[in-house]
Specification:
With 226 residues, the chain is α+β, with helices and mostly antiparallel strands. The chain has 6 helices and 18 strands.
């Protein structure tokens, strides 16, 4: 049996290597920094929840991407990205980090007006979150080189102006908890990415602007809006 056409496999660059990390699924944690929960007017007592983005929406560091259609309110969201190297189900928090291959810097681009409309109507967030070129991700760093960052500054600048400033230690649900919670509902597998939520200060991007997301110890991610 032969496939009737080929689909390019999604992948992310690996820092300092010609190899690439193959991507299967992208899971995103909503509302994982207390200040962001409050700025969006949500209940800080809620348990974590997830949405997904398509793997083929990944774009490289330094890319220039088009302003997406059907929105007048594109937002940046600086995030830590977790790359899964070992799969599993019902993973205990104490063993969760054994499943992590590495970490990177990501930007969860969001059509905020479509998200607000979906929330109001009780509809899924797909059109707000899962559009083309909505997942800029910088090269990943293996845990053998960077360990498991649980603290460190995370920032977003737009045209040099500081927009977001937080610390990984401010996550309501740290990485082991996220993996345990997610794997209780769905089997995670090698090649999965988890975007772990964003600190406060999310805001609009317009055509011609450049957004730089940085995480202490993991470098930066630059994205320009065409």
């Amino acid at each position: 049996m032969a496939l009737i056409f080929d689909i390019p496999a999604a992948s992310v660059a690996i820092a300092g290597s010609a190899d690439r990390f193959p991507v299967r699924r992208i899971f995103c944690v909503g509302r994982n920094y207390l200040a962001h929960v409050r700025e969006m007017g949500n209940d800080e007592r809620d348990p974590p929840f997830f949405f997904t983005k398509p793997a083929d929406a990944i774009v490289e560091d330094g890319a220039t991407i088009p302003y997406p259609p059907q929105t007048d309110d594109l937002h940046h969201e600086a995030e830590l990205v977790v790359a899964i190297g070992q799969g599993g189900r019902d993973i205990r928090e104490g063993a969760a980090l054994d499943h992590v291959w590495g970490y990177g810097v990501g930007n969860d681009l969001t059509r905020r007006d479509l998200q607000a409309q979906a929330k109001k109507m009780g509809r899924p967030w797909d059109w707000a979150k899962a559009f083309d070129a909505s997942v800029p991700i910088a090269p990943l760093h293996p845990t053998a080189q960077v360990g498991h960052p649980s603290k460190g500054a995370i920032t977003a600048h737009v045209d040099g102006e500081l927009r977001q400033q937080g610390d990984l230690s401010e996550m309501i649900w740290p990485v082991p908890s996220i993996i345990a919670f997610l794997s209780a509902s769905i089997e995670i597998r090698p090649g999965d990415l988890i975007m772990t939520g964003t600190p406060s200060g999310v805001g609009p991007l317009v055509a011609g602007q450049t957004c730089v997301v940085e995480i202490e110890g993991l470098g930066g991610l630059t994205t320009t809006i065409a």
